[in-house]
Specification:
Number of domains: 2
CATH topology of the largest domain: TIM Barrel
Helix content: 25-40%
Number of helices: 16
CATH architecture of the largest domain: Alpha-Beta Barrel
Shape: globular
Number of strands: 17
Structural class: alpha/beta
Largest sheet: 9 strands, mixed
CATH class of the largest domain: Alpha Beta
């Protein structure tokens, strides 16, 4: 089969005008100009012509919370980050399991409709995610969330329960991993045990890290609203010993299989620690704006060589940009990032939403770019821009995509949009 459009954006190379992609089963067999592929394609190969459109790799959402999707617009930002945590905890307490299930599935549908084909999702419902994952064609990398402060349970038992849940999960697209929630909501022993378990089993790790000023002050200086809130709930002997990044390093979280989410507040040497360990950093632009964090230290992280990728976070921490509730859209994240940092080339923003995210999930050789041998995960969006502006048009796409392909199958298409089909002569 051949997919054809006005432009192909391989990510691993320059845009291809009048481009096409030859699919063979679940993989990409060739990428190039339409005349070249038409001349070399198998006789009578079916062609889907999307016309004035762009073909780009399926987007990779490196951090989301599907089960909070229906909280869009319900929670107002608070002055102090711990107060927002209390707010969302109260909101979660008012929901039933059915509410969370509907929210998860609605979020997965939004990912498909906005061109995301792979996502790192934080699973907060151990009993439910195994039932939900097989219901979506998205490659969901399910990171089971674990905490150890409020529950006051033995860290070894918390980890044993998490391991059992993940090992019993039925096969589904994507993978599984562990997510110690954050340094302030876990104890050091649980961080160490989680890191050891994940690496022993070949799982990946992700943690909310250095997200807020309150978290930074707690670990750096033993002060601030987070420290005052949690001082009576957890032993704080691990505070006052350096930044949250150094805390994560001391307890063995950093590594090439680790996704550090947010990383908004750095101390001297933190960027180098992340880079030297080959950890990835996930930036969530709309969530960052929602909380009014200080400027994201992208320049410092990139200069150190850190792999930077993008996530949507949850819609509970995303403002609406118009009359409608926000959706889980990496295109909206790219547009937000571009509006906040006009020094970033559009091609770099696209790379963070595709190839860099694939690298963070351990699939840098299979996903995130349109090249022969890679899996045929493809997003189709409308567009008639000239070659000089094609990447800029892509990062400012809004709304649903025209179609989403995963593993060589069209798993979602915009209702009422039917591309022309023909056969190579």
């Amino acid at each position: 089969m051949i997919l054809r459009a006005r432009h192909v954006l391989p990510i691993a190379g320059p845009p291809i005008p009048n481009g096409a992609i030859l699919l063979q089963g679940s993989r990409i067999a060739a990428v190039g100009s339409w005349p070249d592929l038409a001349a070399s394609a198998p006789a009578a190969a079916p062609v889907i012509d999307y016309g004035d459109a762009l073909l780009l790799p399926g987007l990779v959402n490196a951090h989301c919370h599907l089960d909070y999707t229906d909280m869009a617009g319900l929670l107002a930002p608070t002055r102090e980050f711990p107060d927002w945590i209390k707010t969302i905890m109260a909101a979660k307490g008012a929901w039933s399991d059915a509410d969370f299930h509907r929210s998860w599935l609605r979020g997965a549908s939004q990912l498909l409709a906005t061109g995301t084909t792979s996502a790192a999702n934080i699973e907060s419902l151990p009993a439910a995610f195994s039932l939900l994952r097989p219901q979506s064609p998205v490659r969901i990398h399910s990171f089971l969330e674990i905490t150890g402060v409020r529950v006051q349970r033995d860290p070894a038992q918390i980890l044993a329960d998490a391991e059992s849940t993940l090992q019993s999960a039925p096969p589904a697209p994507g993978a599984v991993g562990l997510s110690p929630h954050a340094p302030y909501s876990t104890v050091p022993e649980l961080l160490r045990l989680a890191a050891q378990s994940a690496r022993r089993r070949g799982w990946r790790l992700t943690t909310h890290l250095a997200e807020s000023r309150a978290e930074f002050d707690m670990f750096m200086y033993r002060r601030g609203s987070m420290f005052e809130w949690l001082e009576s709930q957890r032993a704080c002997s691990d505070c006052g010993q350096g930044s949250p990044i150094r805390h994560a390093a001391r307890h063995d979280l950093l590594g090439p299989d680790f996704l550090a989410v947010h990383v908004n507040y750095l101390w001297d040497g933190d960027a180098r620690l992340l880079a030297d360990s080959w950890s990835s950093v996930v930036h969530c632009p709309r969530s960052h704006s929602y909380f009014r964090h200080q400027h994201f230290p992208a320049t410092e992280l990139a200069a150190a060589g850190v792999n930077l990728c993008l996530g949507t976070d949850s819609l509970a921490s995303t403002r609406a940009s118009g009359p409608f509730p926000p959706t889980l859209s990496l295109f909206d994240e790219m547009a937000e990032l571009a509006s906040r940092d006009n020094t970033l080339p559009p091609a770099e923003i696209l790379t963070r939403a595709t190839l860099n995210g694939a690298r963070a999930l351990g699939h840098g050789d299979l996903l995130g770019a349109l090249e022969p041998g890679r899996l045929a995960d493809i997003t189709v969006i409308p567009g008639r821009a000239s070659g000089a502006h094609i990447e800029d048009l892509a990062i400012h796409h809004s709304g649903s995509v025209l179609a989403t392909w995963i593993g060589g199958r069209c798993v979602w298409h915009q209702p009422g949009v039917a591309p022309a089909q023909q056969a190579v002569a």
